[in-house]
Amino acid sequence: MNEPATPNQEESGHQEYRLRPRPVMRPPVDPEAAAVFGRPKGVKGSFDLLHRPDTNVCPVSLQTGPPPPALAEAFGRRPGEENVVLQRPDGYGRSDDPAVSDGDGVREDEEGPLWASESDPWRDPNSPVVLGAPALREQERAEGDVERPTGPLLSLPEVLFGRRVKPTALALLAVVALLIGAGGGVVGWALASAGDSLTGELNFAEAEAAKERPPDSVAAIAQKVAPAVVSIEVEAGQSGGVGSGVVIDPQGYILTNHHVVSSAMQDDDTKVTVVFIDGTRTRGEIVGTDPKTDLAVLKVNVENPVVIEIGDSDSLAPGDRVMAIGSPFGLENTVTEGIVSALNRPVTAPGENGDPPVTYDAIQTDAAINPGNSGGALVDSTGALVGINSMIRTVGDSGEGGSIGLGFAIPANQAIRISESLVRDGTVKHASLGVNAASVAANTSRGAQVRNVVPGSPAAQAGIKEGDVIVRVGERQVRNAAELTVAVREHDIGESVPVRLVRGGRQLTVEVTLGSD
């Protein structure tokens, strides 16, 4: 801080004011810092006084211990050489005689420097650096190789245990190890002898390497499905027939075609036999049939039969791979492969033994189907049931020809629904329009022409008349008489469905509440 000014009188007669010097500010010293960076105790001046030769301050004496034994042995003097030094001896090369001195007291004689002596070449600073034999004394050089004394040899206990084990304990340890080894040998011999008595003689059957097949191959699918496909033998007196069937329920229900067992429906003496893939033969009992869709259900008493996996026929598309498995012409477990040629193909066939015509919406396939395949399985690429083989198209009027690549199967979704009704009720009811119709013209797709209308039927109540051409039922187009039947059966009994028809060249739509057949 500033001190007040004091007046100063000068010769000019006026006063001059001056400021006093600012006092020195000394901050307090940290004791810890002073202990680390302060002067040693007893030293008041600067540190360089300890090393100046003209100072009276005594330097701090350094207390050093004796050198390590290894360093003393390597670099120390040998015994008896305590007075030997490497410096020039006192008075060597000096003389007070001016005749032999150069004025500095150095003799100019012929002796030369101290290191000129051959006895001690290590004193010469100009000697070259070379690799040679180690420096030896004259006595050692003369003696040559001297045998040096060796220390005492160590015994095995001393090496292993460091002289800490008594011989008695070592002997006892050896005895224990010997006993343990002998015991282990006895146990091994006993186990080996017991193993021979247990195993005895073994007979190994020679097995050939099995062929690996992909899980989606035809062979793998056939092995999976074949146990669930059966042959059905129908014997009526001296005549009979062969068909196929599929096990659809663990309780022994088998799905097949109506025309396979139709003769047994007419004659109670007709025998129906079901033959499984393993050769098991059992009597088949008819649970119910549906002649209009050519389906029938049998029941057999077999424990734990192999049941086929049910697929979704609505998920099929033209071109999908399918397989037909059955007993064509009595050849059991025949497998044929093909593709789905078409879907929703309306087919019809005359009924047998006075039964009504057969009509259903079929899956068309080019897999080889022949007589005897009826009632067999049509499976997809996973082995799931998608259809029941039922009908083929042949060439000629006799209908006895073989497959020409036009086979038809009842969709599995429709077949399972009908089989459930047969198992539950024994019969099946279908939706009906109440008309008799025929295709407008052969091999055309112009609709179904009404030939007559059943009085009081749903068609009569809706105003449909003879001569009308029906072209659509609900959302499905009608191109012929067979398609009219399957289009109506797609709906439930009592359901109200719009029907489009052509009358006198004009189109009109009527609402029909479907009845039962």
Automatic annotation (TrEMBL):
The keyword Cell cycle does not apply. It comes from Saccharomonospora viridis (strain ATCC 15386 / DSM 43017 / JCM 3036 / CCUG 5913 / NBRC 12207 / NCIMB 9602 / P101) (Thermoactinomyces viridis). Residues 415-505 form the PDZ domain. PANTHER family: PEPTIDASE S12 (PTHR43343), PROTEASE DO-LIKE 8, CHLOROPLASTIC (PTHR43343:SF3). It holds the Pfam family PDZ_2. One of its GO terms (biological process) is proteolysis. This is Trypsin-like serine protease with C-terminal PDZ domain protein. Keywords: Hydrolase, Membrane, Protease, Transmembrane, Transmembrane helix. The keyword Membrane applies. GO terms for molecular function: serine-type endopeptidase activity. Residues 1-10 have a biased composition (Polar residues). Belongs to the peptidase S1C family. Residues 1-40, 58-130 are annotated as: Disordered. The chain crosses the membrane at residues 170-192.
